[in-house]
């Protein structure tokens, strides 16, 4: 008699435990990326941007922050392929004679740093507030959410303009220019945290009703541990989705503020301040100073938004069952 | 063993729980007859439930959906706080404990098994993490090896291969998840377990596996169960005593043998007759007229009077108390008066 | 010609790594006024079968083989227009959750009248009359007022009655009921089952009852089909199967019911759980859980063996029978 020796209690039929790497390559996430060409392109472009930003000092032929390397005589040179261009500056130069390509590389770095920094701050405040409001409920929830509503009713740009203008006026332009990046991260971060708080609170309210939370309470875990160890990991999907979109938003906000003259100083330009600095010259024929950084910015934001949309589809638990 | 059976491990006295369904303060304001009034509505989930659970028994709490049986389970486990009444565990009142330090000893002694095996395990935690957590928190002085030994022991005792510990819940079937859920409850070596419909989400062939597992665990570990279910046919095997609930009140409490041989309360009789039997001929069941009233506006008197074939005017006016008849406790005027 | 005939039906689901077969070799026929039961646990494919009869399988699933003949027409490749004329009209369906049929933002009356007007040339007034008459048939008190109520104002049992009334609106030939009482309490379940039975008998409607509950099915169906892992493993008259099941799975399923065991004793269980569709099992799909399994069970797929009035897909039916006789 050859009875089946393996008990096979498990429906999946084998005892193989997947490593983290195998898990990733078998995941729904990886599979969705493999079949979606747009997502792949977006991912590649985004990685290219990040690469450019991180290695800007190595890639850039000139250092735009170093006044010694800048020659004002080179100002407003067109890109190398058009008439009058020089082969040293393939995207041309800006009004101060800086190599545009190097400036864009450094500008992307600044823009991404502000965008990601602001979003990290937003996420930190928003997740804490959202978790506490959703988990504790009651009066505290109402209070925190009303504060969030008030915060949301001021538009980000309005808050930023007031805060930055007042700061600039009271502490002087010099100090402002030194602290510009920190200020931008703080202002954009604080103005937009309710987005996170609302999203997190909504998913905490849904997760809180699930039995695993009751189970954790019955075990005797503290509220802090339940919130951060049990509920938070289950709200990560929506957090990830809004994060991509929020980074794009923060970059746009920064660009807008810089364009209005309240952002990064022209000596340390972000993409926004580059666009702004070239704007005066656009009618005198020097279109590249505005248009090229503009295109770089638009593509970055577009790619991030597309990635956000794609992530939302992939991580929507209603659409798939693993 | 016999004298042990006679000491109550858990005493529930006159338990009331109301849930407000009127939202927050501003939702409660109503404009009526030219005046603004605060209007509040409540769901009366339990209404004066008194019940003792004896050491070593499995007490089944049976009732249809919305009768408040799960609320009793949650109140006992301290997941909700009673509006009125008290809960004593081995003589100590536990429903008023607030500080975590005071509650912890009872968390170790009382555990819970949940209804839905797909929701009761954290989807982002491996099985090993899920099981390590309770052992870790209740045995702070144990080292890692001791903890892992304990985890392996409970996994083996519920028939889950310890080598599967690195897996996530979604890799398991419903029956296996319920085993893991039971393992989590057993991991702290409790003496009392509340099981809230632990098999109703499972397939028939798996239900038997899980019930057997729970019965084996009871024999080996000398557990006491409070078993919440809507399925009377399970009770016949699992419960030593049965309490039948309807709309937040107890109708009948008796030993399961007595209940199945001789159901007394009209509601119990209807409930028993409605179980679909394989061999039975159809339409022998007692038809109840009307609908189950909502627990928001409870009927006066006996909550069952609107659907009861034996109801009279006294039933509509006066709430029946549980009275003892031949070892069973029944709350029914008709039985008390000898009409039934 | 039978009213409905399912021939060699196969339904597949296309997944990212190949396709899996949710149903294979399904054959049965339904006559006018028949009551058949399809029983199986979750994952057995019983609900897929219910949906595929009406060709309601949506992507990534599709009917990949076989025919569903309704009055001789194959529903599996009928144009959408003609299918709509059959769905809800000639064959209607009752789901487990009444809210799958009822739209929460429309009144009961609107939904019933709309349904009637979609299939028939009829005035609002006449439609309302028919709706009231159908509600009376399912014993809904004061049907006129119910017509103006929304689904959320009614209890679960009442909603399921209304769904049954809607399924009867067009006087269908066949009703497919997919776990119609699973979401209801026992006392309500008994009432609903009795109602379905009464209506089918009175209106000469054929009933295809899909459920996991042997108790429910044994009381109202004449023919029983037991499904396991996408196949019918045993079929025959309900009474015969309940009293003397041949397939080890059916036996296990019946014995696992608490009422089959002496009070207070350990329940009889089937070990393991149903294989998932992804598993590549050769031979009989039940072999890993079967106490009687032999070499042949892991090697070849069993064909149907006639046993009394039943057909059983098991290699060992004869053998087990002989052993029974011997002992």
Please describe what this structure looks like.
The complex is a heterotrimer of chains A (322), B (340) and C (327). With 322 residues, chain A is an all-alpha fold. Chain A has a domain at 121-322: MetI-like (MetI-like fold, Orthogonal Bundle), CATH 1.10.3720.10. Chain A has 12 helices and no strands. Chain A has helices spanning 20-26, 28-35, 37-54, 56-59, 100-136, 138-153, 156-208, 211-219, 223-234, 236-259, 271-279, 288-315. The longest helix of chain A is centred in the middle third of the chain and has 53 residues, at 156-208. Residues 1-14 and 318-322 of chain A have low confidence and may be disordered. Residues 1-5 of chain B have low confidence and may be disordered. In chain B, α5 (127-138) packs across α6 (144-157), α5 (127-138) packs parallel to α7 and α7 packs parallel to α8 (204-221). In chain B, the strands form 3 sheets. An 8-stranded mixed beta sheet of chain B has the order 8-9-10-5-11-12-14-13, with helices on both faces. Chain B has a 4-stranded antiparallel beta sheet with strand order 4-1-6-7, with helices on one face. In chain B, 33% of the residues lie in helices and 24% in strands. Chain B is of the alpha/beta class and 340 residues long. The relative contact order of chain B is 0.13. In chain B, a hairpin with a 2-residue loop joins β11 and β12. Chain B has helices spanning 2-5, 25-28, 69-76, 100-109, 127-138, 144-157, 174-186, 204-221, 232-238, 256-261, 266-273, 313-317, 333-336, and strands spanning 8-20, 29-32, 35-38, 42-54, 58-62, 84-89, 92-93, 110-113, 192-196, 224-229, 241-246, 249-255, 323-325, 328-330. The longest helix of chain B has 18 residues, at 204-221. With 327 residues, chain C is of the alpha/beta class. Among the domains of chain C are: 91-169, no CATH class; 240-326, no CATH class. The mean pLDDT of chain C is 87. The B-C interface holds B 64-65, 173-176, 203-209, 211-212, 215, 230-234, 236-237, 256-257, 260, 270-271, 273-280, 282-283, 285, 287-288, 291-292 and C 41-42, 155-158, 185-187, 189-191, 193-194, 197, 212-216, 218-220, 242, 252-254, 256-261, 263-271, 273-274.
Quick structural gist:
The complex is a heterotrimer of chains A (322), B (340) and C (327). Chain B has helices at residues 2-5, 25-28, 69-76, 100-109, 127-138, 144-157, 174-186, 204-221, 232-238, 256-261, 266-273, 313-317, 333-336, and strands at residues 8-20, 29-32, 35-38, 42-54, 58-62, 84-89, 92-93, 110-113, 192-196, 224-229, 241-246, 249-255, 323-325, 328-330. With 340 residues, chain B is α/β, with parallel strands linked by helices.
């Amino acid at each position: 008699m050859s009875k089946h020796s393996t008990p096979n209690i498990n429906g999946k039929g084998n005892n193989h435990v997947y490593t983290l790497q195998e898990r990733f390559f078998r995941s729904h996430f990886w599979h969705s990326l493999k079949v979606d060409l747009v997502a792949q392109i977006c991912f590649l472009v985004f990685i290219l941007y990040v690469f450019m930003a991180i290695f800007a000092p190595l890639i850039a032929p000139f250092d735009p922050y170093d006044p010694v390397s800048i020659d004002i005589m080179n100002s407003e040179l067109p890109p190398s392929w058009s008439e009058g261009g020089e082969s040293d500056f393939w995207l041309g130069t800006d009004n101060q004679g800086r190599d545009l390509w190097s400036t864009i590389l450094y500008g992307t770095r600044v823009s991404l740093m502000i965008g990601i920094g602001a979003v990290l701050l937003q996420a930190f405040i928003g997740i804490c507030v959202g978790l506490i409001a959703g988990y504790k409920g009651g009066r505290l929830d109402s209070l925190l959410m009303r504060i969030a509503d008030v915060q949301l009713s001021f538009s980000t740009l309005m808050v930023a303009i007031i805060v930055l203008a007042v700061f600039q006026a009271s502490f002087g332009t010099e100090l402002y220019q030194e602290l510009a990046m920190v200020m931008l991260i703080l202002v954009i971060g604080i103005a937009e945290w309710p987005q996170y708080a609302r999203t997190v609170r909504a998913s905490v309210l849904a997760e809180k009703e699930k039995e695993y939370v009751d189970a954790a309470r019955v075990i005797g875990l503290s509220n802090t541990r339940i919130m951060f160890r049990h509920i938070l990991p289950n709200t990560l999907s929506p957090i990830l989705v809004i994060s991509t979109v929020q980074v794009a938003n923060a970059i746009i906000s920064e660009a807008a503020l810089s364009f209005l003259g309240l952002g990064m100083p022209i000596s340390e330009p972000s993409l926004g301040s580059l666009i702004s600095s070239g704007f005066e010259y656009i009618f005198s024929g020097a279109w590249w100073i505005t248009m090229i950084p503009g295109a770089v910015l638009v593509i970055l934001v577009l790619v991030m938004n597309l990635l956000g949309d794609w992530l939302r589809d992939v991580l929507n638990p209603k659409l798939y069952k693993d | 063993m016999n004298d042990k059976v006679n000491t109550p491990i858990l005493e529930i006295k006159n338990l009331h729980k109301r849930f407000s369904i009127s939202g927050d303060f501003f939702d409660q304001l109503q404009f009526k007859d030219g005046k603004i009034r605060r209007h509040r509505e409540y769901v009366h989930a339990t209404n004066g439930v008194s019940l003792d659970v004896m050491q070593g028994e499995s007490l089944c709490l049976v009732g249809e959906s919305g009768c408040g049986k799960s609320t009793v389970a949650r109140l006992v486990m301290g997941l909700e706080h009673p509006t009125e009444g008290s809960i004593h565990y081995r003589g100590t009142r536990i429903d008023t404990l607030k500080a975590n330090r005071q509650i912890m000893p009872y968390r170790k002694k009382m555990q819970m098994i949940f209804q839905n095996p797909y929701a009761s395990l954290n989807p982002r935690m491996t099985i090993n993490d899920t099981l390590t957590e309770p052992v870790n928190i209740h045995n702070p002085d144990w080292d890692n090896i001791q903890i892992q030994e304990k985890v392996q022991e409970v996994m083996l005792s519920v028939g889950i291969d310890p080598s599967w510990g690195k897996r996530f819940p979604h890799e398991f079937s419903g029956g296996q998840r319920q085993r893991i859920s039971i393992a989590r409850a057993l991991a702290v070596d409790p003496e009392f377990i509340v099981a809230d419909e632990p098999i109703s989400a499972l397939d028939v062939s798996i239900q038997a596996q899980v019930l057997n597992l729970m019965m084996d665990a009871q024999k080996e570990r000398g557990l006491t169960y409070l078993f919440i279910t809507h399925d009377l046919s399970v009770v016949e095997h699992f419960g030593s005593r049965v309490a039948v609930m309807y709309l937040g009140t107890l109708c009948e409490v008796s030993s399961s043998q007595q209940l199945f041989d001789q159901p007394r309360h009209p509601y119990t009789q209807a409930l028993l007759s409605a179980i679909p039997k394989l061999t039975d001929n159809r339409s022998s069941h007692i038809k109840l007229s009307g609908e189950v009233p909502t627990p928001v506006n409870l009927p006066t008197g006996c909550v069952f009077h609107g659907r009861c074939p034996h109801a009279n005017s006294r039933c509509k006016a006066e709430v029946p108390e549980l009275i003892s008849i031949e070892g069973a406790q029944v709350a029914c005027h008709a039985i008390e008066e000898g009409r039934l | 010609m039978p009213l409905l005939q399912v021939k060699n039906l196969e339904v597949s689901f296309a997944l990212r790594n190949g396709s899996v077969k949710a149903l294979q070799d399904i054959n049965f026929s339904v006559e006018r006024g028949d009551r058949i039961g399809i029983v199986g646990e979750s994952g057995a494919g019983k609900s897929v079968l219910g949906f595929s009869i009406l060709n309601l399988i949506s992507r990534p699933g599709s009917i990949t083989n076989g025919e569903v003949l309704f009055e001789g027409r194959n529903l599996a490749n009928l144009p959408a227009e003609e299918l709509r004329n059959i769905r809800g009209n000639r064959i209607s369906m009752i789901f487990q959750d009444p809210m799958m049929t009822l739209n929460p933002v429309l009144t009961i009356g609107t939904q019933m009248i709309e349904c009637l007007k979609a299939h028939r040339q009829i005035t609002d007034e006449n439609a309302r009359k028919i709706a009231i008459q159908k509600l009376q048939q399912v014993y809904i008190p004061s049907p006129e007022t119910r017509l103006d109520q929304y689904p959320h104002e009614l209890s679960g049992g009442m909603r399921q009655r209304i769904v049954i009334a809607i399924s009867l609106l067009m006087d269908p030939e066949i009703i497919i009921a997919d776990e119609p009482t699973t979401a209801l309490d026992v006392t309500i379940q008994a009432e609903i089952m009795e109602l379905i039975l009464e209506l089918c008998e009175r209106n000469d409607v054929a009933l295809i009852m899909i459920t996991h509950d042997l108790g429910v099915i044994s009381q109202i169906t004449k023919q029983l089909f037991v499904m396991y892992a996408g196949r019918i493993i045993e079929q025959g008259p309900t009474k015969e199967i309940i009293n003397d099941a041949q397939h080890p799975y059916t036996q296990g399923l019946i014995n696992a019911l608490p009422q089959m065991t002496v009070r207070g004793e350990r329940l009889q269980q089937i070990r393991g759980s149903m294989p998932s569709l992804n598993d590549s099992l050769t031979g009989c799909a039940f072999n890993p859980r079967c106490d009687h399994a032999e070499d042949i069970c892991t090697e070849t797929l069993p064909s149907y063996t006639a046993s009394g009035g039943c057909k059983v897909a098991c290699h060992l039916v004869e053998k087990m029978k002989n052993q029974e006789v011997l002992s």
